[in-house]
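Risk mitigation, structural track. In case the binding assays with magnesium ion fail to produce interpretable data, a predicted complex structure has been prepared as a fallback.
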Amino acid sequence: MFDQAETLRRLMDEQSQRGEPTPVLKEGGSPSIPRVIAVSGGKGGVGKTLLTANLGLACADLGQRVLLIDGDLGLSNLDVVLNLKTRGSLDNVLAGECRLSDIIVQVSSGLDIIPASSGYLRVPELTRIHKLMLLDQIDELNVQYDLVLIDTAAGVSRTVQYWAASAAEVVIVVTPEPTSLADGYATMKILRETTQETRFGLIVNMAQNQEEALHVYERFSSVSEEFLGVHVSFIGTVPSDNCAKMSVMHRTPLVKSFPFSNAAKGVGQIAAYLQDKSDTANAKGTVQFFWKRMVNYGYSEVTC
Ligand SMILES: Nc1ncnc2c1ncn2[C@@H]1O[C@H](COP(=O)(O)OP(=O)(O)OP(=O)(O)O)[C@@H](O)[C@H]1O
Ligand SMILES: [Mg+2]
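Fallback model:
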């Protein structure tokens, strides 16, 4: 049977021999390993932000300690969906105006967020200097998380690739529309090439029913397997539901404002699935370790 702790210890020994950062051991000696998932999808407006925010809340309600990262630098709106007052953003950190630990906001018990800025884009892509600045502050993040969810921007910019490469898992959000499926597939193809990731998850959002969602998944996964050699797991589906739209209009998260709606039930099922599968996650270390991976990704290719 797969012994995750033993495997991690072996990996940590190997990493430390190579001089690479290693996960911190929690009290009692077992490694603290958050599951890090980048939520991506190529096309805009497919529900990445709405799902990330509500999955964060639903997973925290199940007892997980969750960190949300708004990876949509410049056009962030995770804070809008969660109706939060922020006191700074990643943009301020990257501009040297405050530290990473200053901008983390507690959304509710068990749920924190690192917000991004909206309306201006001083930092369109992370340069070497930005990465070094982040690296300098990463060790201050000493909160332990079980799950980190990263809401990424539409498209496949270099920043989206950083997030995807640093996360242990990439979940693609699609709707049944052909344009969304084409963009989701193209995103996976590019991420496959740039990050060498060969396993992805799929969430079908705004489906009319389960049958439609499964049909979408089957088509998507068989094409991906055949033409990209990529394995796609079905993470779940959230139906098209007016309550989702209303929750955004009212700026009260769906799982709080309409907990019995079909969309909130879909989110709840995905949260339960993520919790069930959490010990089979492809762990890649602590939050610090994850950030360091992100900062180091593509280090040599990016000039300042
Ligand atoms: N399951 C759903 N049913 C009905 N409407 C939905 C559903 N999910 C999302 N929406 C609607 O889609 C809108 C866009 O969602 P969201 O902002 O999460 O998309 P996104 O993928 O993050 O977009 P972007 O790429 O521009 O950041 C929401 O404001 C909401 O009105
Ligand atoms: Mg978004």
